[in-house]
Amino acid sequence: NAGVTQTPKFQVLKTGQSMTLQCAQDMNHNSMYWYRQDPGMGLRLIYYSASEGTTDKGEVPNGYNVSRLNKREFSLRLESAAPSQTSVYFCASKRGGLDEQFFGPGTRLTVL
Amino acid sequence: GNSVTQMEGPVTLSEEAFLTINCTYTATGYPSLFWYVQYPGEGLQLLLKATKADDKGSNKGFEATYRKETTSFHLEKGSVQVSDSAVYFCALNSGGSNYKLTFGKGTLLTVNP
Question: Which among A110, B50, B74, B77 is least surrounded, fewest beta carbons within 10 Å?
C-alpha cells in the first residue's frame, strides 16, 4: 500500500515551458487535492476534485489546470511556467466528508 | 469563512522541555480538528485528530483537546526530543465548500540536545 505517490520529485523548468505533475493514490479515496507550499504562506489549495469526474478551483488556480483521469489519478498541469510558480507542490487525498487528508511526498519545482 | 490561527514560530526548546503550540479557530458548524507534522524534506503526516467537542487526540506523546467554548485545539507534549523538530500545522474541516481543509500557517519547532 503505497499511499499517495507523486512524480517527479524534483523539476527545473525555464520560463514558458510546460509540464504535468502526476499524483496517484491506492487507498480508493474519493477526493483529491493539489496544494502549493511557499515559505511563510503555509499551504494554499490550487485545485481539488471532490469525486471522480469533478474538479473545482481552490484559492490560487491561476496558471494551472487539472485532470482527474480516474479515481486513482489527479494531475496538475502548468501550461506556461513562470518564476512565481517556483514552489513545493503536494497532492493529497481523502476518503470523504470530515476524514483526514493523506499527503504525498511533494514535488520541488524551480522555474528559472 | 473558516480560519485557523496558530502561534508564530520559530519555537526553540531544549530536549525534555514541555511544548505547547497554540491553535484557535473560527468555523461554522461542528468542525473536525487536526494536527499535521512535516519533517524536513517530507510531506505532511497526520499527527492526531479530534472530531467533537471535549475529544482528546493523542499520538507519539502529543495531545490536543477540542475545546468548543474557547474554539481552541492546542498541541502539547510533556517532554520533547530532538526527533520532534519539524513544522506543525493545525487544520480544520467544517464540512462547507466540499469539505476542504483550512490550515494554519505552521509553526517551526527546533529541539536542541
Answer: A110
Report whether the peptide linkage leading into residue A8 is cis, meaning its omega lies within 30 degrees of zero. Answer: yes
Distance from CA of B13 to the nearest CA of A (A): 21
Question: CA dihedral in degrees (B84, B70, A37, A7; nearest 10)?
Answer: 70
Q: Per residue in A63-111, pLDDT tens?
A: 999 999 899 999 999 999 999 999 999 999 998 777 889 999 999 999 9
Is there a cis peptide before residue A61, judged by omega within 30 degrees of 0? no
Interchain pair B101, A101: CB under 8 A: yes
* The pLDDT of residue B113 is above 90: yes
B98 and A58: CB-CB below 8 Å? no
On whether any CB of chain A is under 8 Å from the CB of B44, the answer is: yes
What nine digits make up the cell of B76? 502539547
Model confidence band, residue B98 (pLDDT cutoffs 50, 70, 90): low
